[in-house]
Design goal:
By secondary structure, this protein is of the alpha+beta class. Helix content is 57%, strand content 9%.
Length: 592
């Protein structure tokens, strides 16, 4: 042991240039649903809270004092939540460093909270809660009688639709360049305008959903003859925002899933192997005979061989013959190349690849020396270049590309270590299979240097890290969206108990009420999900075009997103059922 390593990472887990993908994808997957979740939490039990604040205002408390009461309560809850959140993060960091994530490991000290982060959380969260609390109590403090009489809320604003149209205009403009000979790129102003267009599209989609719900409810309520649909649409007409608030996070998740697909498509194209097989080249001098045998028997390894180059005298003439050789059987050679013809086992044969050059001045009948430095003075394997030829076609890239001589394994002893010889293994080029083979090679010989032909190992590691972080972002977005839906559904159930009870006492059946609750959520949600699918695929195509991808229009991902949207609608429909209780309590009306 020479030391204790560095106090920094010599090779970063993710290159700075690649961090742009992470920021962009996680910003869409996590931050947008998180903003919806915070909005839902800020409006939690808004009706009952506004009535309570209106009571305080009618009892004589000033407008500013009423706002301060609500803000103080919110600040205390936010401060407690910030402390609990920091403690939960500390515990989670300790646990995750011991389990890790796929392809991503870190030490507990790497994830420790800095003083700046703790200060931002402990000060920023209560400060934000103060402004949110004061804003939330503004209506109740300014007009308490309107709150007490349950005044009809204002019609949703139309400026959200302006954001959606602006964002769609930007991304559609970039998509239109995909039909031209000069598609847009991500250089210059496009590096800011393209992400801004996608984020405006997502934000506009969120702010437009209440307006869509209101317009749909207004039209259907005037034309329908169905009692269930009429009740559902009248409720959406009165409170369009509360209906869509809980499901907006799930709509954004469908929108963001398209962007995640685009990122994965582009990363797959960057690292997609150009060959059907993957070769691994290892210095033969660093291996023992036992390690050679163990490496050849590894699961996933299709074939093995030895490559070596003939020795040339540095003081000799410039036109002395030179050639590269492959020590393998005909069966092994056939697995190392695309195809071979005319091979005979046990014979030294010429190799001819029409797509590669030949040895320097080597002709049939020339003697090619292969020196073995560990074989003692003058230990040299002399091979005469024969006339018999094997025509083959190598993969590109390949460790045997351009080889000139095929040498049978019987001509080379197990202990021979020719100068510059390399031990070659081959496997499938699938990324997961490459990682598994490399792990197995490291288990046999941990200290050897392995050169995967044509593969950037650091690139593979970064792709694995990116896939892991995207998966974590998708899970976080799903959890946040589901939490927002549960919180909103619970708040709506509490606030509407008196209304549901009144309609039930008039004579409406519980089955009818459940259908009403389901329709008023699922119908506008379905329209929102359809809009999220369309805008998400357009945003994905915009990202792929500006990123220089070979694929512009990802139609293969549509079925999966459609299934995800159907699952979201089904979950939302099931989540509306508890809004109608089993027991009818008339006191809920009298108590109000």
């Amino acid at each position: 042991m020479k030391g204790w390593g560095y106090n920094y990472a010599p090779f970063p887990a993710v290159e700075p240039s690649t961090l742009t993908y992470i920021r962009f994808a996680l910003g869409s997957l996590v931050l947008l649903p998180l903003g919806i979740f915070l909005s839902v939490c800020a409006r939690l039990s808004a009706a009952s809270r506004n009535r309570r604040l209106a009571y305080l205002r009618l009892l004589g408390l000033s407008t500013r004092g009423t706002q301060r009461v609500n803000a103080a309560e919110t600040v205390m809850a936010a401060l407690l939540g910030a402390v609990l959140g920091l403690g939960e993060y500390w515990v989670l960091n300790q646990v995750m460093t011991r389990t890790g994530l796929p392809s991503l490991r870190w030490y507990p000290a790497d994830g420790e909270l800095s003083a700046t982060t703790a200060a931002v959380c402990l000060i920023g969260s209560p400060l934000l809660a103060w402004f949110v609390g004061r804003a939330g109590a503004r209506d109740a403090a300014a007009d308490p009688l309107a709150v007490r009489r349950t005044a009809i809320p204002k019609r949703p604003a139309k400026w959200g639709g302006l954001l959606l149209v602006t964002g769609l205009g930007i991304v559609v403009g970039y998509c239109a360049t995909g039909f031209t000979d000069h598609p847009a790129n991500s250089l210059g102003p496009n590096a800011l305008l393209m992400p801004a267009g996608i984020l405006l599209t997502g934000l506009g989609l969120v702010l437009t959903l209440p307006l869509i719900s209101y317009s749909l409810a207004l039209r259907l309520a005037r034309t329908t003859q169905s009692l269930t649909l009429n009740l559902a649409m009248r409720r959406n007409e009165v409170e369009p925002g509360s209906t869509m608030r809980g499901v907006t996070g799930l709509v954004l998740l469908v929108f963001s899933a398209s962007l995640a697909q685009g990122v994965l498509i582009q990363l797959e194209q960057v690292t997609r192997p150009s060959s059907a097989v993957q070769d691994y080249s290892i210095p033969l001098s660093s291996l023992t005979a036992r390690q050679q045998h163990d490496l050849a028997a590894l699961p996933g390894v299709r074939a093995h061989a030895v490559t070596m180059e003939s020795w040339t005298d540095p003081n000799g003439s410039a036109d002395q013959p030179w050639a590269s050789a492959v020590v393998a059987t005909c069966g092994q050679l056939s697995k190392l190349v695309r195809h071979s013809d005319g091979c005979v086992d046990g014979k030294v044969m010429r190799l001819s690849d029409p797509n590669a050059g030949t040895g320097q001045g080597a002709h049939p009948g020339d003697t090619l020396p292969f020196r073995d430095p560990k074989g003692g003075p003058g230990k040299t394997l002399n091979i005469e270049l024969p006339h018999d030829t094997v025509v083959y076609s190598a993969y590109d890239p390949s460790a045997v590309h351009g080889a000139d001589v095929l040498v049978p394994p019987s001509a080379l002893s197990a202990t021979a270590r020719p100068e510059g010889a390399r031990y070659v293994l081959t496997s499938s080029s699938d990324h997961d299979e490459v990682r598994r083979v490399l792990d197995r090679v490291a288990a046999v010989a941990p200290t050897i240097e392995v050169e995967p032909i044509g593969v950037n190992i650091e690139g593979l590691q970064q792709i694995a890290v990116l896939e892991t972080l995207l998966a974590v972002g998708m899970i976080m977005g799903l959890v946040i969206g589901t939490a927002a839906f549960v919180v909103s559904a619970t708040a709506r159930a509490v606030e509407r108990r008196a209304q549901v009870t009144a309609i039930t006492l008039i004579g409406a059946r519980a089955r009818t009420m459940r259908a009403v609750q389901c329709v008023q959520v699922v119908l506008p949600l379905s329209i929102g999900l359809a809009l999220a699918l369309v805008t998400g695929k357009v945003a994905e195509s915009c990202y792929l075009i500006t990123g220089g991808s070979e694929i512009y229009w990802d139609f293969t991902g549509v079925p999966m997103l459609a299934l995800a949207a159907a699952g979201v609608a089904a979950v939302s429909a099931v989540g509306t059922l508890p809004l109608v209780g089993r027991r009818i309590d008339p006191e809920l009306i009298r108590r109000d």
